[in-house]
Design goal:
Structural class: mainly beta
Number of strands: 11
Shape: globular
Largest sheet: 7 strands, mixed
Order of helices and strands: EEEEEEEEEEE
Distance between the termini: 40 Å
Strand content: over 45%
C-alpha cells in the first residue's frame, strides 16, 4: 500500500514557477509509475505528466510540454513536477497518483493510488 502526500501549491502570477512534490510512504515506491493530474473547477480531471518506475519514460500533456518537467527521486520516495511559465489556465487542484504496473500512462484509470491534491492558482 502506498500513501501519497502532495505539497508545493500556492498562489502565483502568470509567468512564475512552482515545484510540486509528492512524497510516498511505503517501501515499494520505486516500483510504481507516477503521474500528475489536475482538476479545475467544473472540469474533469486531466492528465498532466507521467514518469515510469525507472524514470526512463516520461509523458506529457500537450498543454504543458516545454513548460512542465516531471522527475523522481526513488531514494527520497518523491516525485516532482516543476512548472515554469505558468498560465491562468493552469489553475487547478493537482494530484499525484501511483501505478503499480510501473508505467507513465496518461489514463487515470490505471492509477491505483491517489493523493489528496494541492491547489495551484495562477493570477493574470
Amino acid at each position: 500500500q502506498v500513501q501519497l502526500v502532495e505539497s508545493g501549491g500556492g498562489l502565483v502570477q502568470a509567468g512564475d514557477s512552482l515545484r510540486l512534490s509528492c512524497v510516498a510512504s511505503g517501501r515499494t515506491f520505486s516500483r510504481y509509475g507516477m503521474g500528475w493530474f489536475r482538476q479545475a473547477p467544473g472540469k474533469e480531471r486531466e492528465f498532466v505528466a507521467g514518469i515510469s518506475w525507472s524514470g526512463g519514460n516520461m509523458n506529457y500533456a500537450d498543454s504543458v510540454k516545454g513548460r512542465f518537467t516531471i522527475s523522481r527521486d526513488n531514494a527520497k520516495n518523491t516525485v516532482y513536477l516543476q512548472m515554469n511559465s505558468l498560465k491562468p489556465e493552469d489553475t487547478a487542484v493537482y494530484f499525484c497518483a501511483g501505478d503499480l504496473w510501473g508505467g507513465s500512462s496518461d489514463s487515470a484509470t490505471v492509477y491505483e493510488h491517489w493523493g489528496q491534491g494541492t491547489q495551484v492558482t495562477v493570477s493574470s
